[in-house]
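ERR on first pass: missing label on line 2. Operator R.T. fixed the label and resubmitted. Corrected input:
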Amino acid sequence: MIENSSADIFAVVDQPLSPDEIAARVDDPGAGGVVIFSGVVRNQTDGRPVKFLEYEAHNPMAEAKMREIGVAIRARWSGVRRVAMLHRVGRLEIGEASVLIAVSAAHRGDAFEACRYAIDTLKRTVPVWKKEHFEDGEVWVGLQGG
Amino acid sequence: MDVPEGGTVESAWKAIIARHPDLARYRPYTLFAVGHDYVEPDHRLGPDDELCLFPPVSGGSASRRPFCGRGER
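pass 2 clean. output:
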């Protein structure tokens, strides 16, 4: 029963993300709960003040990997009605959302679990990269040896 | 860049390193992808395959450190 899967949305965007808009994208009359995860830019990394972040993505592969996550969610949580995943690229200031994930489901348990699965999997598989800009330099996250 | 037909990702990496020796030190952190899928070094490349070399991914923003192939987060 995946009649709404074609309405799912998976995109890399270069504009500010809106929780209201992504909530609307998973609107479904069969939904009893909507969970939204918003990943935001933090002001420090291990105590070192961050000025801003810069994100880059391999857009087509990133969207394909997010779509795979959506397919996996529908295979695992039958109560899920709609899934939307957006990742922003470009320069982001402290407090701005870099990623938004919304899942609507018949019952809240599926929505919470599927949303958690989506962000955890995104961080491992979706080709997006983050550069942290500090007062005294900048670094692409992940090239420090783990 | 030309690599032998039927060559593997590993052979392509060696060809790249021959031309750009500075990249050799990033091998432990490099992910390989063909099309929209990650591949292993022994993956055989086809005539029209586009091979991508990625650093560890670090999307999202809520974890302290990204995934680097050791399962930490």
